[in-house]
Design a protein that fits this description.
The complex is a heterodimer.
Chain A: E1 11-22, E2 25-36, E3 40-44, H1 51-57, E4 68-76, E5 79-80, H2 88-94, E6 95-98, H3 109-119, H4 126-139, H5 143-146, H6 159-172, E7 177-181, H7 189-202, E8 207-211, H8 215-221, E9 224-229, E10 232-238, H9 239-244, H10 249-255
Helix pairs in contact in A: 3-4, 3-6, 4-6, 6-7
Chain B: H1 5-34, H2 42-78, H3 89-103, H4 116-151, H5 158-198, H6 201-206, E1 210-211, E2 221-222, H7 225-257, H8 260-275, H9 278-300, H10 310-335, H11 338-346, H12 351-380, H13 383-388, H14 406-414, H15 423-457
Antiparallel strand pairs in B: 1-2
The chains are: A alpha/beta, B mainly alpha.
Amino acid sequence: MTQDDLTIADPKMKAHGVNVFYGEKQAINDVSIDVGTDLVTAFIGPSGCGKSTFLRSLNRMNDTVASARVTGRIELDGEDIYAPSMDVVQLRARVGMVFQKPNPFPKSIYDNVGYGPRIHGLAPNKADLDVIVERALIRAGLWDEVKDRLAESGTALSGGQQQRLCIARAIAVDPEVILMDEPCSALDPIATAKIEELIHELRGKYAIVIVTHNMQQAARVSQRTAFFHLGTLVEYGKTTDIFTNPKQERTKDYITGRYG
Amino acid sequence: MTFNAAALLLLIAGLALIGWLAGRARSSLLAGRAGEKLHSRPQYHGWYVALWLFAPAALFLAVWSSVSPALVTNQVLAADAAQSLPAFGFERGAILSDARNVAEGRQAAVRLPAAAPLVKPYADASQKYALIGIAAMLALALAGGLYAFTRIKPDFRARTRVEKIVMLFLLLASLVAILTTFGIVLSLLFESIRFFRLVSPAELLFGTEWAPTSGAPQPDTFGGIPLFWGTILIGAIIAMIVAIPIGMMTAVYLTQYAAPTVRKWVKPCLEILAGVPTVVYGYFAALTVAPALREFAVMLGIPNASTESALAAGIVMGVMIIPFVSSMADDSINAVPQAMRDGSLALGATPNETIRQVLIPAALPGVMGGILLAVSRAIGETMIVVMAAGLSANMTANPFASVTTVTAQIVKLLTGDQEFDSAKTLAAFALGLVLFIVTLLLNIVALRIVKKYREAYE
């Protein structure tokens, strides 16, 4: 890959020489990438290229897969997140995640958003929690739709609302980075547009990394784009450069729709 | 000549084999002669003939075996020699069966003199009906075989036909269980109705005195409340206090924490626990747990401590139920989507917080269904309570005292010498009916809950 595109002065997360194995199989091969603090970074690439696997290694969600093994170095604010001294629970509070399929808990809307603040002790009393829940729902653009029915089950919302609820849930613990794993793949175009709008609004408040299949979406929401293929990082740079002037033949073939 | 069903079954099986060979041979022969391709392979034609030969004849054989003894007896009763028989009751039956045994060669000579004149009519009648039965059966077999045999043509779809016949057989097989259940319910119902003619349902369901002392000077009382209370105390309270927490914790450990190797060893061990015969649990409860509990109770100064205690039976029954609860809870927790667990972990929750606040609430409906099924098993459990809980019908909340249960009383009422028309014996059927209805309702509710919950995540 070309190094001269990395114009990130103060990266929030730095990955260097990262390999991820599932048992014997290597899913990620020597990936180095910096994630900017005020930027939206998109990971694109064909199915099975390892972009989701790499995303999940940024908050150690791969730990939940028994056979997964990560080598190399990933830093959050200069601190190695795979170091033995790293508290995984704290790490995941700082690096939140939104999944492919909306996965609200079978609890009320209020409790869904309040879950994180409660377990992390962010709200000493009910009034504080009310404020946190309201702020998170406002930020996720869901407040006006649900403010009168906070006691209803989160699973009763529409798919797009559920996904925004999941974003609100992630925001509520006040993370520094939000990882989004194809957050719109289960949503219709209108709900997708709302999520994209939301990503625009959240930019600058959080470092956002989004995995997407949809190249138009990557072009619309991100400032940096990384193209993965077969477990390697083929090209990483400014989104405008990647889409208008890719340096690698494989990137060009992919974004012009020749494969993928 | 007597009607020997097993030999006849063998005979038609032999005929069916011939039919199979003939059908197979004929289909290839016809195909060869006409120069056509067979629709079905020759053995399907063989099977078609064999099944048509065998099935109607076997069905007739089954029906005839159950009907012909009654026909034989009817004819014997119509004979002149039978007019001097006692009109009703035990003696009449004994004379008839004595005569039948001699006539059918199971006995060398009559034991009751009154049976002697009946031997000849019996022998005649059974020979007559045996001949009729055999002739009809062979006719059916041949008719079926010929019908199928004449239908064989190269383009005959024997393969599809055989498929249909096989499906019919499978349907019949599955009906056996359903019809048996139906029969059990009916027999329970009829005997219970006889009981309720003697004792009112209200007394059984709401009476508080249980003393079925048949033959004693004071009147029998059939108040079921002490039994129901004992059943609930042991099966639904003590056993569940043991089984639910331990079963749940086992399930949580096995699904969330255990390494695959641990799981590989612990699960089969639990399954072995579920396979231990209940009588073994029974003597474990009676010989080991109950005496220990009694000593403990005496040490604490608890009154009425008995070696047959509700607590001993309940604890051991709870242990017996643990694998059941844990496997239901295991299924329910596993059915909660991984995404739910990931969602919680990704928010920085520990595995323990995830289990307590997300997994168990999400799995709760399924777990509840499993617990109801466990209760229904526990209240129907017999051996442990017979051996360890005792037979005295006490209404007590003291777990160290002896109580009795519905199942233990059924055993007590039906063992030993009994007259099958006394209220005491019939009470067992009425209790059985109550138990059946309660467990049926529990099962229906539980299965509904489990099913509804499964649908929610699929």
